[in-house]
Design a protein that fits this description.
Strand order of the largest sheet: 1-2
Radius of gyration: 52 Å
Strand content: under 5%
Distance between the termini: 57 Å
Largest sheet: 2 strands, antiparallel
Helix content: over 70%
Oligomer: single chain
Number of helices: 15
Shape: elongated
């Protein structure tokens, strides 16, 4: 953002003015060097850079450049981080100390050589102006006004028009410069406001993220404490309820449990909890219907040798791999009428040869053989589903193998 602002602030016209001033300063320096060729030069004299030449040859443009450079430096300081700003202040203080020391030494050498007289500290006197002096000043002003008026009256109309034209151009140029300066200041102010707004937004976002993190940590700790407390409360509640049930007589235990279950089902809240845990009648009815449907399907395809029935049986039995516990496996085998060994085999991972050919490769080979063979019209179908007849290869198998490797780039 700061880089864009610097590009926008330096308009093409201003860059042209800077380049023109620098070029003129270079020409002036060249002429001065040509004139002073015969003069002796000292080894300690430093050549003037473009900054000094601009100050010497075009003071007005130099002031404009100083103003622009101050704005650019202010913008750079605004975009600095705290660490960079601290380093910048330290280096500035160090540079200023060196400059003051150098100026003091130069002044001391000049006083010692007699080129400069030491400045005498004198008490400032209060300036007074008498009425006679005031009258004299006013008379001088009137005399100067009359002189300028007479000088202006002595000029021709063409000279007056030319002077007025130059004045109008100067006023117009000054107005343009003031407008450019105002636009630069407004852009800089807007830039600073945007930077401050962005910093405030980032600070607010950081605070929000930090508050959210603390809130989540507090919620997590609260949930962990509540979970531990809930487990302890559940164990204590179950212990008290279990002690209330009869121990010796199984008939009394069944009646008591039935009464408790019936009373719990009469409450909507307790009924919802029972349904959630799979103890409601609706869940048991759904489970019974599903198990009956699976049992009927297995009974129909139990002794079938058809390929589709074998695949269906294998698919149904593969779902039994979820029954990891032995008790659940025995219960499922009794309800569905299948051997427990079938479920155990479904739980065992299938061993596949490491060097076995992939199914995709096998299908590709079969398709290549079919495309390389010819089918006679008077032969019977191999299968009514595929409508394929016995095929006869027209080339040796070695050639067909070579063409397969070329086609699939093996």
């Amino acid at each position: 953002m700061a880089f864009q602002l610097r590009l926008n602030l330096r308009s093409s016209s201003r860059l042209k003015r800077f380049d023109t001033a620098a070029a003129s300063s270079c020409n002036g320096a060249t002429q001065q060097t040509t004139i002073n060729t015969g003069a002796s030069t000292s080894a300690t004299t430093k050549p003037k850079n473009w900054y000094q030449r601009l100050k010497q040859n075009d003071p007005e443009e130099f002031k404009r450049f100083q103003k622009f450079d101050a704005m650019k430096s202010s913008l750079n300081r605004t975009n600095m981080t705290n660490e960079k700003k601290k380093h910048y202040n330290e280096m500035t203080a160090k540079r200023m100390r060196k400059m003051r020391k150098r100026k003091a030494e130069e002044k001391a050498r000049a006083i010692a050589s007699g080129d400069v007289q030491p400045k005498q500290k004198t008490k400032k006197k209060r300036s007074t102006c008498t009425r006679q002096q005031k009258l004299q000043l006013e008379a001088n002003k009137e005399k100067d006004r009359l002189r300028k008026k007479a000088k202006w009256g002595a000029k021709t109309q063409l000279e007056k028009d030319e002077i007025n034209r130059k004045r109008r151009e100067k006023r117009h140029q000054d107005k343009i410069n003031r407008e450019l300066d105002r636009m630069e200041l407004l852009a800089l102010r807007q830039q600073r406001q945007d930077i401050e707004a962005e910093r405030e937004r980032q600070e607010e976002e950081r605070k929000r993220v930090e508050d959210e993190r603390k809130r989540l940590e507090l919620v997590t700790i609260t949930q962990e404490i509540a979970q531990k407390t809930k487990k302890a409360a559940d164990r204590k509640s179950f212990s008290r309820a279990w002690k209330g049930f009869p121990k010796k007589n199984s008939i009394s235990f069944g009646r008591t449990f039935k009464s408790v279950y019936k009373r719990a089902m009469s409450s909507p809240t307790k009924r919802a909890q029972l349904e959630e845990n799979g103890l409601a009648p609706a869940h048991r009815e759904v489970d019974a219907v599903v198990m009956k449907s699976i049992e009927d399907q297995l009974a129909l395809i139990k002794n079938s040798k058809k390929k589709i029935d074998v695949e269906k049986k294998r698919e149904i039995v593969s779902k039994m791999s979820l029954l990891k516990k032995y008790r659940l496996q025995r219960s499922a085998s009794r309800q569905l009428g299948i051997a427990p060994k079938t479920i155990r085999n479904a739980n065992r991972p299938k061993h596949i040869r490491k060097r076995s050919t992939p199914v995709a490769t096998v299908d590709a080979v079969i398709a290549h053989y079919i495309s390389s063979a010819i089918q006679l019209p008077d032969q019977k179908y191999i299968s009514k589903k595929t409508l394929l007849k016995p095929g006869f290869l027209q080339e040796p198998i070695s050639h067909i193998y070579s063409s397969f490797r070329t086609k699939h780039r093996i």
